[in-house]
Amino acid sequence: MFRVLVSDAISEEGLAPLCASAQIDIVQKKVSEAEEELHTFDALLVRSATKVTEELLEKMPNLKIIGRAGVGVDNIDVEAATKRGIVVINAPNGNTISAAEHTFAMMAALVRRIPQAHISVKSREWNRSAFVGNELFGKKLGIIGFGRIGSEVAKRARAFGMSVHVYDPFLTKDRAEKLGVSIHSLDEVLAVADIITVHTPLTKETKGLLGKDNLAKTKKGVYLINCARGGIIDEQALIPFLENGHVAGVALDVFEQEPPGDHPLLAFDNVIVTPHLGASTVEAQLNVATQVAEELLHFFEGRPVTSSINLPALSKDVYEKIQAFYHLGRKLGLIASQFMNIPVQELSVTYAGTVADLETTYITRSLLAGFLRPRVASTVNEVNAAMVAKERGITYGEKFSDETHGYANCISLTVHGENKTFTIKGTHVPNYGDRIVHFDGVAIDFAPEGHLLYIQHQDRPGMIGKVGNVLGAYDVNIATMQVGRQEAGGKAMMILSLDKPVDDEVLQALAQIDDIETVKRLEA
Ligand SMILES: NC(=O)c1ccc[n+]([C@@H]2O[C@H](COP(=O)([O-])OP(=O)(O)OC[C@H]3O[C@@H](n4cnc5c(N)ncnc54)[C@H](O)[C@@H]3O)[C@@H](O)[C@H]2O)c1
Ligand SMILES: O=C(O)CC[C@@H](O)C(=O)O
């Protein structure tokens, strides 16, 4: 008998297959009300209200699987769950349409001032001249983040006669053309859009994406919408733009803190809000509940789960054999994705030497997951990487070769972008670790660990000293430095390993050194 704790409001109809199973005992209670029996549960089902913290996991030693009836898993400590061998599953597309429709409802309500007019009429007023709005027809809609929800919003906007201007650094031209939208830089979208809606995950890169500087680049009279995650639009930074009338109105479904309490934004008449309702429809809740219920049944029946976001389905035996290459693959993908931070169509992986005799499918999936990790909202791992790549129009393939470049094993990854191709090669040396031995056409040798800095420059005397001086001036300590070049006096590169990450100011100072062409931060 498996015990399942359902701690948030999840559609009962969707959970019906679980309730019908004689093998499963379902308990519907908040975590706080189940304190005494937490240790007895095998599975935990949540939406976004329950915070699945490390502390909670400590109290649930029997837990084997966590199901999130929705997309974002930011309320679950996935790392802590993974460490404990707990599988985390979600329902990545069950609420896409509802979230897109809610965004659109907010957009219409915002430009036609529907919530304000509603309150006025309910207060027994009849003040038609106070609520003159704008049409959506003919307006330019800026969409930042063009994944599942962003692309559904675009379809609806086109039906309303709007032109759609998209910023998504990972969107390919092919996919944009198929969906009838144009791709632009962030600055272009900010400058032209009458209405801007954000649909990215909340990551280090997107936190505060619409902050003081970028808000200043928007058109006077712009409308803003956030139905993705609180914090993508910086709430504090918005206040002066609302006070001086630069921003005509804001619609928020999500907040940096939920509930937002007595937030200063709530005092503005032209800020309209909902309490995180994007996924709150009968249909979406049925979809997400059905998806997680089916996955839970598979899991308990010992069948593979398809929407797991943390664990690969590997036997212990296979895992032990491929473990080292699995980690190397992940790092090759992660570094390549950051280096090629542009849309890509294809990844090609070549295995040579001892690694070519192993279960390379898992290594490729690990590499793919590493590559996709900086680009997608939900956590991506070996189990869902292939599906996520397909959704994003990225193909991948494996090849086998005898060319080991003198190493016992070698994994080579070539990434094909729109106008650029990049190759990285790595090897694993038992009892020593992983080494990157080839990077963008140059033979080099460095460990893919920690905070790395890539510098491409012309091969001139004194370059190392100049770089060292700039980093020294910013109090950044260099742990290791590797140099390589194609030919004397030609294209050369340095890979530095630093004791701490560097910010944009340091990158800009380095880029100003004569003969330095590119500087990039790479985290491994
Ligand atoms: N309000 C709600 O109830 C609700 C419901 C569902 C989803 N969501 C949230 O909506 C957001 C989008 O969900 P989705 O299912 O469309 O995710 P998705 O992964 O399909 O799409 C996210 C897109 O953002 C892009 N992106 C990543 N980093 C970016 C950056 N720095 N700049 C611009 N684009 C970037 C990715 O390339 C991707 O195309 C998530 O934050 C999700 O948690 C909210
Ligand atoms: O469960 C909810 O209502 C929120 C869902 C949404 O934010 C998600 O990320 O799927």
UniProtKB/TrEMBL annotation:
Coiled coil: none annotated. The keyword NAD applies. Residues 452-524 form the ACT domain. InterPro entries: ACT-like_dom_sf (IPR045865), ACT_dom (IPR002912), ASB_dom_sf (IPR029009), D-2-hydroxyacid_DH (IPR050857), D-isomer_2_OHA_DH_cat_dom (IPR006139), D-isomer_DH_CS (IPR029753), D-isomer_DH_CS1 (IPR029752), D-isomer_DH_NAD-bd (IPR006140). It is an enzyme of class 1 (oxidoreductase). Pathway: Amino-acid biosynthesis; L-serine biosynthesis; L-serine from 3-phospho-D-glycerate: step 1/3. GO terms for molecular function: NAD binding; phosphoglycerate dehydrogenase activity. It holds the Pfam family ACT. Keywords: Amino-acid biosynthesis, NAD, Oxidoreductase, Serine biosynthesis. It catalyses: (R)-2-hydroxyglutarate + NAD(+) = 2-oxoglutarate + NADH + H(+); (2R)-3-phosphoglycerate + NAD(+) = 3-phosphooxypyruvate + NADH + H(+). Its EC number is 1.1.1.95. One of its GO terms (biological process) is L-serine biosynthetic process. PROSITE patterns: ACT, D_2_HYDROXYACID_DH_1, D_2_HYDROXYACID_DH_2, D_2_HYDROXYACID_DH_3. The keyword Manganese does not apply. NCBIfam families: PGDH. PANTHER family: D-ISOMER SPECIFIC 2-HYDROXYACID DEHYDROGENASE FAMILY PROTEIN (AFU_ORTHOLOGUE AFUA_6G10090) (PTHR42789). Belongs to the D-isomer specific 2-hydroxyacid dehydrogenase family. Catalyzes the reversible oxidation of 3-phospho-D-glycerate to 3-phosphonooxypyruvate, the first step of the phosphorylated L-serine biosynthesis pathway. Also catalyzes the reversible oxidation of 2-hydroxyglutarate to 2-oxoglutarate. This is D-3-phosphoglycerate dehydrogenase. It comes from Geobacillus proteiniphilus. The lineage of its organism: Bacteria, Bacillati, Bacillota, Bacilli, Bacillales. The gene is serA.
